[in-house]
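Hello Y.,

Per our agreement to keep a running log of every chain we model this quarter, I'm adding this entry. I've kept the format consistent with earlier entries: sequence first, then predicted structure.
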Amino acid sequence: MFSGIVAATGRITHLQALEKGLRLTVEAPALDLADVALGDSIAHGGVCLTVIEKAGAIYKVDVSRETLDCTVGLDAPGEVNLEKALRLADRLGGHLVTGHVDGVGEVLKFERIGESHELVIRAPKPLAKYIARKGSITVDGVSLTVNRVDKTDFSINLIPHTVAVTTLRHLKAGSRVNLEIDLVARYIERMMSAEVQA
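Predicted structure for the entry above:
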């Protein structure tokens, strides 16, 4: 589990083809890896991946073909938002995030408004029912609050700190982003739609 509070940005520097996926080399000098062991989870742009090798500020993770097919940002070198998995004693500064991406959204607008930025994203139609005004959503691993919803489009206000310390600062109209809906919304929908077993 994660909180959606990005600890640092790192960089995917190398991709090695596997039979069914990729092995990524990640450089993360700004992320404290002292307590990260092999087998631990780190979220990469909102995608939970397992550390399989580590040496100093560099580590490797494997990404399955299935994960690559339903996410963006892991199939090429570049900057990525990073967050280590939560411990039970950690402060939950964002919201409960699983690191399992529900779909890929498209940025419609990313514009500065005063000191902040307005980010407007079009979600895949099946996810729209889970996105609520003042509710939580994860965009590329960042826990954010939805300001406005219009059918499949939703708007978020990004404060200067979020823009400065995450990869969201690189977004523009047409960018594609990983989306994870609120965990509570997912379970409520399942409970309400489940058939009663006789």
